[in-house]
Design goal:
single chain; alpha+beta; about 40% strand; globular
Length: about 180
Amino acid sequence: MVRKVNLDLKVPLPAAEAWRLHRNFNFTSFSANIDKQAVNLVEETVAVDDGGRHQMRRTFKMVFKTDPVPNALRGVLKTEQIEPIMREVWIAEVYEDEYSYQFTSDMAFFGEKLKVSGRQWFKPIGDSVCAYHSRAEVHANYFPGMNGLLERAAAEKLEWAMSTFGDRAVLFLQQPIDQQPE
């Protein structure tokens, strides 16, 4: 079974500013820190399509600051096995299209048995407000009886993180530029 996470939220920023921030790796790092994680950039590339638009690709690893693996499982399951590898693709100049930004997440331990993917975009509402749209799917194919638990846990975490985008954006922008994480 696939668990879906669909959010449509108002963000107190113009759409272009929210889009710029959404793509900013410093903001990604800031958000990860709120979640008691860190991010390590693996690769970032830019390609220009025939229309002159910049297609961006980024891969990074989420690293837990505290070990989330229960003590009883630490002999069999290592933290680095469940740290997600995130892959993002977006068109830099386009934020209103439903496929402007797409992401997938993989974990070494679960491999193809736990898939998280989605897309996000912004629509202007007014001069200082936009709509943030997010569609994601979580699919587990691990063990009967555990699939629903895995999907629910991953979907709840994903929904919480996506639902706090506006608050995180405001917090990030309130920091003096020289104090924003590199």
